[in-house]
Write a structure and sequence with these properties.
binds 2-aminohexanedioic acid, 16 helices, seven-stranded mixed sheet, Aldehyde Dehydrogenase, Chain A, domain 1, Aldehyde Dehydrogenase, Chain A, domain 2
């Protein structure tokens, strides 16, 4: 049975009751969970049930890991340039289906359609980039200290990569993790976020269609508590790559540490835009608006703080207020909408709770600050774009990740204070500075303690060929994306070939 027939049959079999159902993908087959149970996928813009996916169990993970283990034995021996041929096809298929994928993405996640297209493009870029790695995967060749001896390092796959991915970038982040894992010869067991299962299934359908051998990519739907936990706990899963909350990331790290299992963790941010007194204020307003309220503030890189020089604070406030009042809120499938819904009810409540805490702690609410319930919005989860000012750096809303369309102005007197405020949080993902003074910009580039720094742009917009990740509570020293991603999914092997025909002792015989 060819792969495409398998997929079509899976759909035929499960579409009898007209509800769109996806199945797990294990060992090249679309299969139901051993639990026989399903859960619903809901559109956050209007509450519509989009379909169902399996509620899987530990047994499903056991099956997926067994399949991955078997498949990896031969996948690692496929020459990397040949593995990469499949990735080129993945890139082409993603490109062909960009519009369909973007529509699905907006329907299940809520981000506005132009951003969904941007996200799919990020996965396309990553696929082409990592396909190129099939002909590189560079190691070093170095001269040996001994005669007639050859020395080099090569990258070997780690084995089985367990991927646990979030709902806010369901295909981009999945591409950051799965593509480097696969091109370097690992097999994958993937648990996508429960909120965005369809994007995961569509991505895997593309892997299948591109000809990835059975068992190399396995997809298991379900909760973090059951399925995620089973992946982390499984002794045959060699590396866990996770993007999500700090709390879960820490748990994963602790759990994996006992097994000496490698973890790559990306756990959010509390990113700030600094606006100095010599900045182009209109440009700064553009940057803040886009990065604080784009994706309804649900990016790890969202601008959650605005560190404003006191000389331009008032101008910034009034310009921001004017622009925020013009933002159109609604279903992201409407091309004219600027800000879509947040992901679900509990997220809506959490955001609202933070806003209430902000008011209680004495922050000045300039606009927004409420759940939107007008006729067209009442069935979805919409929050009013919210701006606070006169926020002190230690307030809860200036310290904790809100993950919603809420941002706060913190006044400062100079660059030194701005840097101190920027660095005073638990996270260190992204930061930005608006200034025309090259000396102060370079000082900021050096001193901002984040994994990503933007100059004269907001806090989002990472490109796939540089490392993505951060310092402090944002991560554990690893990076997604760029060449750095290969370090997560490979082991270095140093190889010495002695062709002298005699025993040569390093550090001894040449001294
Ligand atoms: C995330 O928010 O977790 O730089 C990923 C950006 C996007 C990726 C964000 N390219 O905002």
């Amino acid at each position: 049975m060819n792969n495409q027939t398998t997929t079509q049959q899976a759909f035929k079999e499960t579409n009898r009751d007209q509800v769109k159902k996806y199945l797990n993908y294990i060992n090249g087959e679309w299969v139901a969970s051993v639990s026989g149970k399903f859960s619903s996928n809901v559109n956050p813009a209007n509450g519509e049930i989009l379909g169902e996916v399996p509620q899987s169990t530990k047994e499903d993970i056991d099956l997926a890991v067994n399949a991955a283990k078997k498949a990896q034995k031969s996948w690692r021996l496929v020459p990397a340039p040949e593995r990469a041929e499949i990735l080129y096809d993945v890139a082409r298929l993603l490109k062909q289906r960009k519009e369909d994928l973007s529509q699905i993405l907006t329907s299940e996640m809520g981000k506005v359609i132009s951003e969904a297209r941007g996200e799919v493009q990020e996965a396309i870029d990553m696929a082409y980039y990592m396909a190129g790695e099939g002909r590189r995967l560079f190691g070093d060749t170095v001269p040996s200290e001994l005669r007639n001896k050859f020395a080099m390092s090569v990258r070997e796959p780690v084995g089985i990569a367990g991927l646990i991915t979030p709902w806010n970038f369901p295909i981009a982040i999945a591409s950051w993790k799965s593509l480097p894992a696969l091109v370097s010869g690992n097999a994958v067991v993937w648990k996508p976020a429960s909120e965005t299962p369809f994007m995961a299934a569509e991505f895997v359908k593309i892997y299948e269609e591109a000809g990835l051998p059975e068992g190399v990519m396995n997809l298991v739907f379900g909760s973090g508590a059951v399925v995620g936990n089973a992946i982390v706990d499984h002794p045959d899963v060699d590396i866990i790559s996770f993007t999500g909350s700090n709390e879960i990331g820490r748990q994963i790290n602790e759990q994996a540490a006992g097994m000496l299992k490698r973890t790559s963790l990306e756990m959010g941010g509390k990113n700030a835009v600094t606006v100095l007194e010599d900045a182009d204020i209109d440009l700064a307003v553009d940057g803040i608006l886009w990065t604080a309220f784009g994706t309804a503030g649900q990016r790890c890189t969202a601008c959650s703080r605005i560190i404003a020089h006191e000389a331009i604070k008032e101008e910034l406030e009034s310009k921001l207020l004017e622009r925020i009042s013009k933002l159109k809120i609604g279903n992201g499938l409407d091309e004219s909408v600027d800000v879509g819904p947040v992901i679900n009810q509990s997220s809506l409540q959490k955001i609202d709770n933070y806003v209430k805490i902000g008011v209680k702690e004495g922050a000045k609410l300039l606009c927004g600050g409420g759940i939107l319930t007008s006729n067209s919005l009442e069935k979805g989860h919409f929050y009013a774009p919210t701006l606070f000012t006169d926020v002190s750096p230690t307030m809860t809303i200036a310290q904790e990740e809100i993950f919603g369309p809420v941002t706060s102005i913190i006044p400062v007197k100079n660059l030194e204070e701005a840097v101190e405020v920027n660095n005073s949080v638990e996270f260190g993902l992204s930061s930005s500075i608006f200034s025309r003074d090259v000396n102060r910009v370079f000082q900021a580039m050096r001193d901002l303690d984040t994994g990503i720094v933007y100059v004269n742009a907001g806090t989002t917009g990472a490109e796939i060929h540089l490392p993505f990740g951060g310092t402090k509570g944002t991560g554990n020293g690893h990076r997604d994306s760029g060449i750095a991603a290969l370090d997560v999914y490979t082991e270095w092997k140093s190889i010495y070939v002695d062709y002298s025909g005699s025993l040569q002792r390093a550090q001894i015989d040449n001294r």
